[in-house]
Design brief:
Elements: H1 16-34, H2 36-49, H3 53-67, H4 74-90, H5 97-108, H6 111-114, H7 118-131, H8 139-147, H9 149-175
């Protein structure tokens, strides 16, 4: 969860197991960015958001994952979100400052669960814009999400089929490694 807030070699300031989590997150990010379905999905947002198109696709993928009945029922997603918030709360002293400031809002507004709805996704797109240095609006992104919903869902499904085994394998490799 904190990987996007830990830049470069600052990962070495964290416990060995957290470093592995950061490495996993970064490997998943790289895999995601290079996946053919993601490249296609980015093209929907690129004319309006250029380099930020990948960040919008990440939010869209989060929506489809949260709404994916093969992965989560409404009840299991709610339970999962609460477990994540509890775990994060227990490790608050380790959080990077920017993540620590954001975490109370994430928990209070139940971001992880609300990705499931279009309303929650709209709020997440808005949050992305608020945190970005060069973006001013998210209405266009939400309109593109709605307009291309079926197409984006198709890209998610193609991507999800490949990312799950990749992430599982990478997790097992990192779990069994003693390298940083």
């Amino acid at each position: 969860m904190i990987s996007d807030f830990v830049k470069g070699k600052k990962k070495f300031n964290y416990h060995f197991n957290i470093q592995k989590g950061i490495a996993l997150h970064r490997a998943i990010d790289s895999f995601t960015d290079e996946h053919p379905a993601t490249k296609e999905a980015k093209e929907i947002f690129r004319p309006y958001y250029r380099l930020y198109s990948g960040a919008f696709v990440d939010v869209v993928y989060d929506h489809f994952l949260a709404a994916d009945e093969q992965e989560f029922t409404e009840e299991s997603l709610h339970r999962f979100a609460q477990e994540v918030y509890h775990t994060l709360h227990m490790h608050q002293p380790l959080m990077p400052e920017r993540f620590a400031r954001m975490f109370p809002y994430m928990k209070e507004q139940n971001w992880l669960f609300h990705y499931r709805s279009q309303w929650g996704t709209e709020k997440s797109l808005g949050g992305l814009v608020r945190r970005a240095a060069y973006l001013t609006e998210s209405e266009t992104a939400f309109g593109l999400f709605q307009q291309h919903y079926q197409r984006l869902q198709h890209y998610y499904r193609l991507f999800w089929t490949d990312i799950k085994p990749f992430a599982r394998k990478k997790f097992e490799e990192l779990l069994n490694s003693d390298i940083h």
